[in-house]
From TrEMBL:
Transmembrane stretches, start-end: 65-86, 157-174, 194-212
Organism name: Legionella moravica
Official protein name in the record: Uncharacterized protein
Swiss-Prot/TrEMBL keywords: Membrane, Transmembrane, Transmembrane helix
Domain of life of the native organism: Bacteria
Length: 249
């Protein structure tokens, strides 16, 4: 009976791992760990990961203590150092590069007209609390929950991408003459373009979130119609919707 009871739990554990492996943040975390191990081995003048995999004589080497150190150091880096470094990188990017990127790629020319049947989250929140309408409150709470989860996932991916970028640069530019992961990619591809493509892709994952349309819009046709009716009653048709909303709320 015990085996029967334990097998479903084991199967669920396997499916949980497989499900996690389909997420990009799981992939980025795994790649970051591989690059970290490769760099630390090289720092201690140990064989690189690929050498350990290809040389049977080295596979039995006693590296237990170094592996423990690597795991603890990796945990310290990802849980303490990385968030601080990521915050600093974000501040520097927003301070010195954000405006330039917006102009170069035309992000500042985007049309921010509010789509039909959508209202701003602050409009929904105020209307819900003024009217004490449970339906509107539920819509707003559901929106806030989805927004929180989305932002947390995006920020996690961005921080892991920054970690991978840092480790890849060390692996390629500092230890690039050895039998490293990045050097193997270079050897198999026959060109450094793949490395630069990876660097560009990681940079995109780190900073693209600052250029996504972050207007807090919620689909709520009923409230949209109410706002539209107030507009027609109190303002000329030619007056901009943004000005009308600011006057109402």
């Amino acid at each position: 009976m015990s085996d029967i009871n334990q097998n479903p739990a084991k199967n669920l554990g396997i499916f949980s791992v497989l499900d996690a492996a389909t997420e990009i943040k799981f992939f980025l975390l795994a790649v970051a760990f591989v690059l970290w191990v490769d760099n630390v081995f090289l720092y201690f003048h140990q064989p690189a990961i690929l050498e350990l995999m290809s040389n049977s004589a080295l596979q039995n080497a006693s590296l237990s203590f170094k592996l423990i150190f690597i795991l603890v150091a990796f945990s310290f880096m990802t849980s303490i150092v990385l968030p601080v470094f990521c915050r600093l990188a974000n501040e520097l990017y927003l301070q010195f590069l954000w405006n330039g990127v917006e102009k170069i790629f035309g992000f500042d020319q985007r049309n921010y007209e509010t789509p039909s049947d959508y209202v701003y989250a602050h409009e929904l929140q105020k209307a819900a609390h003024v009217a004490k309408d449970k339906f509107l409150i539920d819509i707003y709470n559901a929106y806030e929950k989805v927004k929180f989860e989305r932002e947390r996932s995006i920020n996690k991916i961005a921080s892991l991408a920054l970690c991978n970028l840092f480790l890849l640069c060390i692996n390629y530019f500092h230890y690039g003459q050895g039998n490293t992961v990045s050097r193997s990619l270079l050897t198999y591809s026959g060109s450094s373009q793949l490395i630069w493509f990876c660097i560009a892709g990681l940079l995109l994952l780190v900073f693209i979130r600052f250029h996504i349309d972050d207007r807090q819009l919620v689909f709520c046709p009923g409230l949209y119609q109410d706002l539209d009716e107030k507009k027609k009653q109190n303002f000329p048709q030619t007056e901009p919707m943004e000005q009308i909303r600011n006057s109402i709320f």
